[in-house]
Each structure stands twice: as C-alpha cells, then as structure tokens.
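Lab notebook: predicted structure, single chain.

Context: the supervisor wants predicted structures on file for every construct in the current expression panel, including those that have not yet been purified. This is the next one on the list. No modifications to the sequence; it matches the entry in the shared construct table.
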Amino acid sequence: MNINMPTSLAGERYQLGQLVGRGGMAEVHVALDTRLGRTVAVKIMRADFANDKIFLERFRREAHSVAQMNNPNIVNIYDSGEEVVTTETGQTEHLPYLVMEYVKGQTLRDILKVNGALSQRDAEQVMMGVLNALDYSHRMGIIHRDIKPGNIMISEQGVVKVMDFGIARALDDSAATMTQSQGVVGTAQYLSPEQARGESVDMRSDLYSAGCVLYEMLTGRPPFTGDSAVAIAYQHVSEVATPPSSVVPGLPKMWDSICAKAMAKDRQNRYATASEFKNDLLTFMNGGVPMAAAFNPLTDLTNMKARKQAEMTANTVAMAPAGETTATQAFNPVTGQFEAVPNPQNGVATKTRAEQRAEAAKARKKKQIIIGSVVGGLVALLVILGVFFMLNKSDSAADMVEVPDFTATANISEARVEEQLAAKGLKLDAREDSDSSKPKGTITKQNPRGGKKVSKGSTVSVWFSTGPQSVAVPDVSNKSQDDAKSILEAAGFKVGNVRTVDNASIEKDKVVSTDPAANSKQTEGTIITLYISSGMTKIPDNLIGQPKDSAIAQLKQAGLAQITIENEYSDSIASGAVTRVDPGVGSTVEAGTAVTIWVSTGKQQISVPSVVGMSYANAKSLLESYGFQVTVSGPEDGTVTDMSPTAGTQSDSGATITLTTKSSSADNGGNGGGTSSNNNGNSNSNNKRTTATSSKTSSKLSNI
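Prediction complete. Output recorded below exactly as produced.
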C-alpha cells in the first residue's frame, strides 16, 4: 500500500520539512508550527499501523498520558493526531503522528557508534539523566518498555532527553492484530528477561534495560550479542553478561556489580526503583560503597532458574473458597512494592501448604514408580540383546579399528588425513562443505564420528570447508527502501542502518548507494547499510574565485541548472571570476533551486582628471575623491606643474597618481597665474568629474 505523504498536518498547522530520521515503525520530520511560530519534530507512524484499530486507540490514550509529563529529561509531547491521507488506489487511511519537542543534538546510539565507550564520568552523567526521566515517569505510572541508546538524545548543550514514552505500550497491546509479527516489544539487545519470556512487565523492566545501556556506555558494546534476536533474548534469560572490567582492562570492578544488579535475572533482586539505582551510582562515584557490592549474579541466575523450574512443575492449586479472606499480592508501579489485595468474599478455598506438599510427594512417588518400571524393562531388554550379541560374536572383533577424530584437529591437510586413515586400514572419502563459514580447508564434520569402532577397509567421509561463500552485493540504486530491502535479503544479506544523504541526481526517498558498495563481493549474512536520498543538494564550497564557466558546470553537476548571472566590479577578484553566490556557498538546498552568481568585471576604470596648475592640496583632494592614491615630487605647498598618468588616461580605481609641483613663491605673477590656473583647473576638473561620473553610471547600467 503506497500512501501519498502530506506536506502538512492538522489543517496545515504543521508544515513538514526535512526528513531527519527513519526507523522500523516511524519517520521523523522537522516541522514549523505555524500557529505558535516554533520549530518542532513530528513523528509519523508507519502506514500499516493505520489499519490497526487497537493500536490507534491505545496510541491516543498513551499520547494523552505522556503529554501530561513535564520533566527536563523527557522529550515533551505537544500534540498528537491522525492525518487522513489518500493511497494510490484512491482509498483513505489514517496516519497517527506525534508532535514533539525538537532537540538539536545526537542520539546516544550515534555517539557510541562514532566514539565507542564513554568515560566513566560521562557514562554516569548520561545514566543520571535517564534515571531521572524513569524516576519521574514511574511515579506517574508510565513504563517506557523500550529503553535503548536510540531513544536517548544528547542535546548540543549536553542535556539528556529520553524519547518515545508510550509507543511501546501501544505496540504491545496491539501486537496480536498487527499485519507484521512484532514478537515481544523492545530491542533485543536491551530486553529484560520477563520481556523476552513474553511476561507482564513493571518498572523494573526499564531498570534492566537501563543497566544494559550503562554496560554499553562503559564497554562500547551491548551485554549480549548473537546471530538473531531469538539468540540474544535467550542470553538475557539464561546467561550472565561478561563483566565490564573483563572487556575494558583497568575499569573498576565495582561497575561489574552495579551493572549486574541492574541486570539481575530475577527482578526481585534488581534495584527496586530508579531512585535507588541513582543513589548507588552517586555513592560509588563519590567514593562510597554501593549496595550493589553485595550482589552475586551467579546466585541470582541459579535461584531464578530454580524458581522457574518450580513454577513449571508445580501442581495446579485450587482457588480459595467463599468466605476466605486470604490476601493476594499485586505489584504497584507507583510505589514499586508488592501490596496485599483482599480476596473477594465469594472466592474458592486454597489448600494448605502441608496438603499441597503431601499431594506433590504422592505425585512424585507415583511418577517414580512408573519411570522405574519403564527403566527396568529397558534394562532387561538390553541384557537380552547383550547376551545375544555375545553369543553371536565372531572373531572379526580383532579387525575393528577406532576412527580418528579430525574435527578437533586444526590446520590438517587432506593428504595428512588420508595418510592417518591409511595407517589404520581405512579409506578417505573427501567431500566439500559449501555451506560452512569456516576458512577454506577446515574440517567441518566426518562420518563415522571420531572414536567410533569400525572394521578395517571401511570408508570415512570427511567434509572440508570451501570457505565462506562470497556474493556480489546487488545494485539497488534508485530503488525504494522496501524494494531494496527485499532484493538484498533475497541475495542473502541483512539490511542494517538506513541513513539519509543529500543527492541531487537521485529522487527523494530512493536509494543512493549501499555500504558495502554495489557489486562488491561479500559473505552471505553481511549487514548492509542503505543510504537514502533526501532530495537535497549542496552549493559547492569552492565557487568564489572560480572562472564563471567552471562555477556554472559545478552548479549543474550539483543539480542546480537554474542560474542567473550578474556583473560587478571587484578590487580583489580577477575579471571573469565569481565574486559571490546566492544562496551562499556550502548551504543545503532542494535540487532545482534558482541560484544567482556575480561575476567580476575587474577593477573599475576611471578617467584621470586634470589638476595641472592647481595647488597640491586641491589637486590631492580632487584625485582622492575619484578613488586615486596620490604621491608628490616637489614641495607640498607648491603648484602642480605635471602629473603621471596624464589627464584623460583610463586608470584602475585605487591607482597611484604622481604629481610634480613647483614652489609658488618664485614670483608674484606666478601667484596670480597660479590662482587663475587653479580656478580654471577647478572648473575643468568639475566638468570632467561630471563626465567621469556619468561614464561610471553608464558602465553600471550597461552591465545590468
């Protein structure tokens, strides 16, 4: 189902801008709230959620609840709704969306991917922000359910912001009706054991996920990894994570205890509240001994397994009879405690523990009798078969040999295997294992297995790995994200991150490239990163000072063919080169945006006015008003007798004019003549100045 995405929401109140993020269930746009005049972030949910009425109803309720929260470490929710959109078939659908606070910064996931593990102090500061957010939300009765680095923003000011409260809850309640299987809600690397088992969760599930995030901040990797989400989930339930100090040498071992307590398999052994978690962090970072120091993860795991086994094998217990007032226990997410809840008056009676133990012992005894009978019968059968075998045994036992175990031997050649088998009187059947990811020539399996007795002359099949299979990465450029994912997965690859890049030649939301690159040989199962076009392009950085034709070619190559050229004088840039660009160089614009470039016509040419016969002071003032520099050869209180360049010459603005002067005190007649000449000179100069100005104006008009 292809949906025409709108350019605005809520009756054009929210004008959608650039796509800044895309995930499995939503995409995020920067938007302008035209009513309040502020920048916001709009998260538009995936189209297939629109058909799920349960999700839509839960989405509305959760959005309303989360909008009531006001905490500096929680991304504020301003608004929510559903936008009516039209599919390509003409049908109408509802797209749910959230209007959120716009946080300019990076996700913790991106920071960890680029920088690796954080310092202890930075990890503590980030975790304090996360726990502040969880402490507040838990007191409000809201459980996040999907705490992970991708949902933790770090603003440019260093403020920690937790996102996506309520989304996981909405997904969880609608999982049974989703068009795509959601499994358990949450990200595999950060699932609590109870989430992995599909059990109900409380706020301690969030604290487990927070412990996983703390582990990754300290080590640079999640506590559990695997080939699939199922494998990772199994580890969360059944295995203890490698201590952080074993991953990062020199890291204080107390971090091992804090992470282990936060990630306790039995939630009753975890931190009871986010506040308790915070206090332990502060105690340790201030030099004290946290309460986590007494926690033993191995004991926790053992007790958890024993308790789960007991729950699985326990008999079904009847309910309490009417009139009984025995209290049951219910977990309160606000207080973080299990509280007594009275039974209703018409309940069913519950048997005493002594009665339950007696019935359990009776059932075990009965089970043991049945098992003993079956085992006894099998033993008798085996004895009969053994006697039969011994009676019919031939002397061929002397010809039996033990098959060598080659699978446990590293770096052994086929020739050596054949030699060892021949020494025992056995034959080699060498086979290729093309499905193995082990290095070429490695023995992957054998038949019969090592240690088994066979008769001499028997054939032993041994499989040698042909090496990991390399497959060319398909070229999915210009494909939609969904089509590219289908093509890559069909070729045996996995699609990982999806990133947005500026590209003028590729249509918006189509694939630009992949990493690893198309047509490169990669082993099956390699994770491929998709780069999706944003439909934006960049004004080249190096246009200023470039020849006009070169600048135009670069702009067209960037997808900017609508170019306007203007001329202007420039004292610093050579004629024919670009002086400035609008929009400015380095700015990001939509492909096809109109661009104006200004081209230098060189320095402005000015006609030199005549100043011969004028006093030096008047001549200098006049020439400087034209933009010239003035030097003098002779007395500065004299009269100009000559000039270079001569009057009427066309010179660059800022050029130097050299004046030759003669002292005006030589004779009185000269003074009078000088005065007359000066007057005439001023008159002529004024005329020429007018002419020059007029010429200058004409030059500018002709260039427009």
